[in-house]
Amino acid sequence: MDPDFDPSAYGSRIADVYDATVRDLPTAAAVQRLAELAGDGPVLEFGIGTGRLALPLLQRGLRVAGIEGSPDMVAQLRAKPGGEGVPVTVGDFARTRVEGRFTLVVLALNTVFALPSQEAQVRCFANAAAHLRDGGRFAVEAWTPDPGAFRDGRSVRLLSVAEDEVVLEAAELFPGEQLMRTTKVRMTPRGTRLLPANHRYAWPAELDLMARLAGMELEHRWADWSGAPFTDASRDHVTVYRRRA
Ligand SMILES: C[S@@+](CC[C@H](N)C(=O)[O-])C[C@H]1O[C@@H](n2cnc3c(N)ncnc32)[C@H](O)[C@@H]1O
After folding, report:
1. Count of Cβ atoms closer than 10 Å to residue 191 Cβ
2. Pocket residues for ligand 1 (CB within 6 Å)?
3. In the prediction, which pLDDT does 223 show?
4. pLDDT for 161-199, tens place per residue?
5. Which range marks the domain in which residue 175 is found?
6. DSSP 118-153
């Protein structure tokens, strides 16, 4: 149990600017890949957020539902065309159950690491499997830990530079517990915003073990949504697990 964990905390700090922070991501490639993995659907997204992936999947004719911890993120989703019609349950995706069985459960953009402990992540994998039909898939997108990028347990990275926006990330690493505390500093002409996020990180092999504990097998691991090969140099992975029949 993680009694202090609040699944709404991240979203309540970022909801109004979230879409601006993800506009350079390869969303079209992600949607294309997810649509291929889903077949005829339906799809369940853990941490559906503002609907960056869910709304384009819906536009492709797939049924999509979500579990989301932050009412502020859900409000952003609801304000978009089509957003009113997406069934979203507010809750913690490591525990919350929704009705139905899905061909695909999606957990994108490192959000598995938003869960505060190994125990919560193991529960999340079990929850994903419980929502899948036999043969259904669980797609997880996450970064690959890189402790070498830290000096004395700290790092500062320049994430993006544009005329009207600069984003930095300051991070602190606690390797004993596999925790990373980060704050993104987003500077625009309208001011500076601090966007904190905590991660309980894991290497791909640990995630694979969580999948096996939940009755799923590794099907694919790519370096990105386009299917580039995953190598020792890959800093991110897109991994697909399949629920055993
Ligand atoms: C990085 S955003 C990703 C949003 C969306 N999936 C996307 O790809 O744009 C992570 C989302 O997961 C939500 N979230 C984080 N931890 C959660 C939890 N334990 N249960 C439910 N939602 C959670 C956050 O509120 C946020 O909306």
Report:
1. 7
2. 7, 10-11, 22, 45, 47-49, 52-53, 67-70, 73, 92-94, 108-109, 111, 114-115
3. 98
4. 999 999 999 999 999 999 999 999 999 999 999 999 999
5. 147-197
6. HHHHHHHHHHHHHTEEEEEEEEEEEEPP-GGG-BTT
pLDDT in the model for residue 106:
98
Q: What is the CATH number of the domain that holds 50?
A: 3.40.50.150
Ligand 1 centroid distance, CA of 203 (Å)? 20
Pocket test for ligand 1, best of 52, 111, 127 (most atoms within 8 A of CB): 111
Same domain, 172 and 208: no
From atom 20 of ligand 1, which residue's Cα is the shortest distance away? 92
pLDDT digits (tens, 9 = 90+) for 128-137: 999 999 999 9
What residues does 156 pair with on adjacent strands?
170
Same domain, 19 and 84: yes
